[in-house]
Specification:
single chain, alpha/beta, Rossmann fold, 42% helix
Length: 362
């Protein structure tokens, strides 16, 4: 999978740019604050229709403008044009000029793996951040996943509302609660099964990725879920036993909305016992394992973004990461330190020098 060209109109600090990319390595360099990350953010947004830096789409629109457009040509087994248009009212996505009404039909087409130093913070963040990581990655592999997730969240909201109704009106029937509970389990089991399968596949590769880069330690991911190894009947019985407690609390006390990931290094939880360096290494290994999973599942390597990686790792680890990459993986590297990149890499790369609001191919 390659993005051959990109056009931006009123995106962040760019008024209008058009770029053609190398099929293998693209290096984007310049001083801090000039817009290097803005460029890879646009590539990410072309894939997932959202930013990895902000939850507010309006922040992507250039100051004093009404809308922004991201357009790219992507080559897989076929060549297609993709567009994401954002304005004050919302977003519109197109493939080959045709409007796609369902986001889930769009985002599984362009696969992106993003590596950035800030991601080590996921270990000290609440479980919702790790679930968000899972949701972003899996949604690129299975378009039905977003539909199941949206349906689960709708039923969860309805169920929580009805629990509060039951607390106010103690004589109300629990029949509707039973219906909502069964629907919640139905969607929850589908999500659990997909998440479980994804983590199993990541664990097939993650330890080798960790070892090849960081040379020691045994890494695996443990998937923690209320639904673990339970069928729908068992889950329903557990919910029923918790009805009175949930009615008092006014919320659903178990489900896949409590799922979590635990990164285990040498059989110890990295979040509790790992150093900052080990946490950083673990999330990098996770993302590199993802590359292999994407290739196995989709038959194409994803596009890889390494944002400001050179500020986070020493030269030896960077060399080990680069060794794992091959010409089949289109890679975008942002850096302020061009001199830290191996000359062999530079000779095979396309270089883009960024000054504020402007990009020049070198």
């Amino acid at each position: 999978m390659k993005i051959s060209s990109l056009k931006l109109v009123n995106f962040r600090n760019y008024e209008k740019i058009e770029l053609d990319f190398n099929d293998s390595l693209n290096i984007i360099y310049g001083n801090n604050g000039v817009g290097k990350t803005n460029l890879v953010e646009a590539i990410y947004a072309l894939s997932l229709t959202k930013s990895f830096r902000t939850s507010n789409d309006k922040n992507l629109i250039k100051k004093d403008e009404l809308s922004t457009k991201i357009e790219g040509v992507v080559e897989t087994n076929t060549t297609n044009s993709y567009q994401v248009i954002l304005n004050k009212e919302g977003k519109k996505v197109k493939i080959d000029g045709d409007i796609i009404s369902k986001i889930s039909d769009y985002i599984s087409n362009i696969n992106i793996v993003l590596l950035q130093p800030e991601e080590q913070m996921i270990f000290t963040a609440p479980p919702s951040s790790r679930r968000k990581l899972l949701n972003i990655e899996i949604s690129q592999l299975k378009k039905d996943y977003i539909i199941y997730l949206n349906n689960y969240n709708k039923v969860l909201k309805q169920r929580n509302f009805y629990l509060r109704e039951l607390y106010i009106n103690g004589n109300a029937s629990k029949d509707y609660l039973n219906i909502l509970t069964k629907k919640l389990i139905e969607y929850g089991k589908k999500i659990y099964d997909i998440r479980f399968e994804f983590i199993e596949k990541i664990n097939t590769y993650i330890n080798d990725c960790y070892h090849n880069i960081f040379e020691s330690g045994e890494l695996k991911i443990k998937y923690v879920s209320d639904y673990n190894k339970k069928n729908e009947e068992e889950l329903f019985n557990i919910y029923v036993k918790n009805y009175n407690k949930e009615i008092i609390l006014g919320k659903t006390s178990l489900g896949i909305h409590h799922d979590d990931l635990v990164f285990m290094l040498d059989n110890q939880n990295i979040a509790e016992w790992g150093s900052n360096g080990q946490r950083k290494n673990a999330i990098f290994a996770f993302k590199l394992a993802e590359i292999e999973v994407f290739n196995k599942e989709k038959g194409n390597y994803p596009i890889l973004i390494l944002d400001d990686l050179f500020s986070a790792l020493d030269n030896n680890k960077i060399k080990n990461i680069v060794k794992l990459l091959n010409n089949n993986i289109q890679t975008f590297i942002t850096t302020t330190e061009l001199e830290r990149i191996d000359e062999t890499l530079l000779s095979n790369a396309k270089l883009f020098n960024v000054t504020y609001g402007n990009i020049t191919e070198v």
